[in-house]
Amino acid sequence: MRVPVIAGNWKMHKTVGEAVRLVQDLKEALSAHPLPDVEIVVCPPFTALAAVHAELRGSRIRLGAQDVFWEKEGAFTGAISPGMLREAGCSHTIIGHSERRRYFGETDETVNKKVKAALNHGLIPIVCVGETLEQRDAGQTDELVRSQVQAAFAGLTPVHMAEVIIAYEPIWAIGTGRTAEASEANRVIGLIRQQVAESFSEDTASAVRILYGGSVNPENIDELMAQPEIDGALVGGASLDAASFARIVAFH
Question: 152, 123, 20, 127: which is closest to 64 by C-alpha?
Fold first, then answer.
């Protein structure tokens, strides 16, 4: 049985003080809901990680980062190493988000290096894959997503893959208010699982958790989570509101 994961990507939002207040509000909001068996992760900006970690102590919410670099240390101005994230209290890190690919030059090759570095330092990578609207309209979704999955996990072992979380995020649905139809999201996530089976094994594929991301909100979470292949959500804007995120976590 795959335990669902609901992760909130705060992106470039929230000062340290605002982040702490959001976590306080989230803990209170979650206490008002009967929660399913679910892992909860929040991913604040780097500057707020330590303060949020302190605020999360004693709660069931885990801490993630929004990116990581693949080197342990060195002359890499602006980069954050896996060890630094672990020291700040992180258990997870997002890797390969489409905004990192679009604005910061992330490639399939660098995603693969970051995944390996995260795993080698005990971090759980949440690895994002997904197509643009142009690629979808051109009928390239299946081929592109398969190739991203192959490249992201090249050189990994089934033991490594047991720690990995994958997030299917169609780029055309991120922050646009447009959501992939639940049945279509389920189909593509099933395709991702099929690619993992071909690259590793059926057992590995049946165990790996695959999330959907792209304008997830309280209104669509229940339908998404009713799909057999979808194991959770990577939530953007709705994770910045404690009540909305708590309702997403309390899907039914």
Answer: 123
- Rounded to 10°, the helix 108-120/141-152 angle is 40
Is-contact 231 5, C-beta < 8 A?
Answer: yes
pLDDT digits (tens, 9 = 90+) for 133-157: 888 888 889 999 999 999 999 999 9
- pLDDT per residue as tens digits for the range 196-231: 999 999 999 999 999 999 889 999 999 999 999 999
Closest CA to 203 of 233, 159, 151, 168: 159
Task: Decide if 97 is catalytic.
Answer: yes
Q: Which of 39, 99, 169, 229 is catalytic?
A: 169
* Residue among 97, 106, 131, 229 flagged as catalytic: 97
Can you give the pTM of this predicted structure? 0.96
Burial (CB count <10 Å: 0-12, 13-18, 19+), residue 115: buried
Instruction: Determine how many CB atoms are found less than 10 A away from the CB of residue 140.
Output: 14
Give 5-13+42-53+60-70+78-249's CATH code, choosing from 3.20.20.70, 3.20.20.220, 3.30.390.80, 3.30.200.20. 3.20.20.70
Instruction: Give the residues across from 165 on adjacent strands.
Output: 126, 209
Domain edges within the chain: 5-13+42-53+60-70+78-249
| Sign of the CA dihedral running 157, 95, 85, 165 | negative
Sign of CA pseudo-dihedral 231, 50, 112, 122: negative
Helix, coil or strand: residue 52 = helix
Q: 250 has which bridge partners?
A: none
